[in-house]
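(Structure overview)
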Amino acid sequence: MKRRHFLASLAALSIPISEALAAPTKPKPGTKPTSSKPATNTRSSSAKPPRGGRNVTSSTTNRRGTRAAAVPAAPAGPTVHTADAPIIEKPPQGTTAAKLPPVKAPEPPAEWRTYEITTRIDLRTSGQTRLWLPLPLNQDTLYQRTLGHSWEGNPSNSTMRRLPDGDLEVFHCHWDEGRSGSLTLKTLVTTADRHFDITKRTVAPEREDILRRNLQETKLIPNDGLAFQLGERIVGRIKDPVAQAKAIYDWVIDNTTYDPSLPGCGTGDVRKQLVSGQYGGRSADINGLFVSICRAVGIPARCVYGLRTGSSRLFRSLGLSGDDATRGHHVRAEFYIPGYGWIPLDPSDVRKVIAMEAISERDSKLLALRRVLFGVWEMNWIAFNVGSDITLPGQQIPQAFLLHPQLENGGSRNDGPNAAATQYSISSRRVEL
C-alpha cells in the first residue's frame, strides 16, 4: 500500500482529538454577579468565588495595608474535565448523573454498510445432536444494527434464546437420533465505523450492575493478585482514567507477541499469562490481558467477541481477502469512562500487523495505526456478544466465552470448525439495501 493511500485511509477513519476547553458558566438569572476584588481592612474577610468552575485565588489585606500572600480558593461549581484534568480522583466503581455534564442525543453516523452473513452446517453423524450458534448483538448501537435473521434446514426443533442478562443471544436447535442434519442461517447486519471523541463528554451513564460486572474477575480473567500488581506498576501516579487506559494499552502492545499458529482466537487464559510471565497469543489472549489489567486498577472493561466481515482499509491482514469468513473470528475490547461511555480499542490488531505484515515497530504506518486503534473500530467486523462464563441453554457446565458454533453429539461437545462431525462454513457478502 502506498504511503499516501494509507494516510488517506487513516483520515477516513480517525477524527481530530483535541482538548476540550472549559468556558465560564453564566450566572443564573436573578442573581447578582460576585466581585473578585480583595476584601480590605477587616479582621477576616473573603470574596465569594465566581461561578463557572475556573480555579481562582483569594487574597486579604492586613491592618498595615500590605497585601498578604494569595492562597488558593476551593473551586466552585462543576469543573469541565479533559484528558489532562482528571475526571475523578479515584478509579470508577460506578457512575452517577451528578458527575456528568448534560446528556445530549448522540448523532447517528452518516455512512453505513450492510453485510449478509451466511452460516452453513452439514452434520456427518446420525446420533442425537445439539447446536448453538452465536448471533450478532441483539441491541442496536451507533455502530451496529441487526436487521433480521432467516434460516432453513431440517432440525427437529429450533429457537432463538437470549440469556437473562442480555449479553448474549444464540440460535439453538437439535436433531433426533437417526437423522442427518443440515442448517443454513442468514443474518443481515449493518455497521458504521466507531470513533471516540475526547471533546464530547455527554454520554448517559451506564447501569451500575453492568459496570460492577465488568469490574469482577471471571474464570480466565483475574482482577487481583498479579494483575493488580502489574496494573499498579503500569499506571503509577497517573490519575486520569483515560490516561490510565492509554498507558495499559501501550504496555500491552509493547510487551505481547501475536502467535498466528494458535487455533481460533486463542484460549483467552489471562491467568496463565500472568503466572508464566509470557504475554500474548491471539486476540482473546492479548485483548483479554488489557481487560484484566483495567479491571485490576478499577476501570470497567470487557472483551467483545465477533467476526470479521470485509476487507480492511488499514492493513490487508486486518480484514477478509474474499467472502470466506469461516476463520474470521476476532475479539476486540472496550473500557468505560463516565461521560464518555464505552471506548473502543484493539491492541491485538497492532501486534497482528507486526507479525503478519513483516513491518518494523518504528514504521510510521504502524505508529499511525497504533494511535488510530485507541478509540476506533473499523467496522469491517460485527460484534456477537460480551458474555463471559456462559451457561448455554440445555447445558450445566459454563464455558469462558461463546465465539464459534458449539456442537454436542452423544454428550461430547465440539468447537466450531474443529468439530470432526460437521462440514462448517461462514461467508460474508456486502449488499446494498
About this structure: Residues 200-378 form a domain with the C8orf32 fold fold (CATH 3.10.620.30).
